[in-house]
Amino acid sequence: MMTFILALFLAPPALPAPLQEATPLIDNNRVTVREVNSAAGKAAPTDGRNHDRVVIDLVKTTAFFVPKGGVYGMSGHAILIDLKDLSIPPVPNQTPYPLAFPREGAKKILENNRVIIWD
Q1: Which DSSP symbol is given to 60?
Q2: DSSP for 101-115?
Q3: S-S: 83 plus which of 4, 40, 52, 94, CB 3.0-4.6 Å?
Q4: pLDDT tens-digit profile of 18-50?
Q5: Is the dihedral of CA 22, 25, 100, 115 positive or negative?
Q6: What is the model's pLDDT at position 21?
């Protein structure tokens, strides 16, 4: 019994789990959206497709923009939105309903030439 317990203490520590990506939730000509889990603090590149990316960090409850080739720290659970380079003009609102944003109580977190992020 003592040998078994000693072997547990001498075993090498477990390595952090690699980035676990699910199949895309959305994949169209504008974006690819994935939900991912990884070890906290693990840096994640924007991947070989080299797209700009929006990260919605579900642990820290924040969102941010990562330009092509950028690296960022993963907190453990996030939604990754790869922005493809296809340029399509916005679809005009031809309904009697108002635009979704801006709306009362919404806070603009970030705006650049690729995205506007609202909370």
Answers
A1: T
A2: SS-TT--EEEE-SS-
A3: 52
A4: 445 567 899 999 999 999 887 655 555 545 558
A5: positive
A6: 52
